[in-house]
Write a structure and sequence with these properties.
Elements: H1 2-10, H2 20-28, E1 32-35, E2 40-42, E3 50-56, E4 59-65, E5 68-75, E6 80-81, H3 83-88, E7 95-98, E8 102-108, H4 109-118, H5 120-149, E9 162-163
Antiparallel strand pairs: 1-8, 2-7, 3-6, 3-8, 4-5, 4-7, 5-9
Helix pairs in contact: 1-2, 4-5
């Protein structure tokens, strides 16, 4: 099972160029959590101490707006979420709810700190990759916001702020 999990992580941008033994080190310190359909990985405003890699199932990223949850993005196998909390130490900016039964690898800030102490180079690559992923998402969001402001496109027709 660990070999399958290593392969899953290797397909993700955040773990690009990370050695097998480093991924094994992280997996040895990372529980696999099971969240039933309609259960929450975390809620908007919660303190964040970990990120997740969705191993099986589907989940939804939700943002609260005027008393209702609004869908920001759908998540499927191999998607990661929650990494912003590991970078900025702010509360969760959105909720993630399981749409169907899910399993996910939970990578904690503590396990990344242990990697920092063991292998600074591999830790730095993961941190740079997280920064790149967050930057990619910000660029996408900036483009959608710009197009919406210019009246060029109805961004609500995409995944942004659909009612959940």
């Amino acid at each position: 099972m660990q070999a399958t999990r290593i392969q899953l992580l290797q397909r993700m941008p955040i773990f690009g160029a990370i050695r097998d033994e480093t991924l094994q080190f992280l997996l040895d310190r990372s529980p696999v959590v099971a969240i039933p359909a309609n259960g929450y990985f975390f809620r908007e405003g919660d303190e964040g101490q970990s990120m997740f890699v969705l191993e099986a199932g589907k989940a939804a990223v939700l943002k609260r707006w005027q008393g209702e949850d609004r869908l920001l993005r759908d998540l499927a196998q191999g998607d990661c979420f929650g990494e912003m909390a590991l970078m900025d130490f702010f509360p969760r900016s959105a909720s993630v709810r399981a749409v169907e039964n899910c399993t996910a690898i939970e990578l904690s800030a503590a396990s990344l700190l242990q990697l920092y102490e063991k292998d600074l180079e591999q830790f730095a690559v993961i941190e740079m990759n997280m920064g790149r992923e967050v930057s990619r998402r910000l660029r996408e969001t900036d483009e959608r916001l710009f197009l919406a402001k210019m009246g060029e496109r109805d961004v609500s027709a995409d995944y942004v702020f659909r009612a959940a």
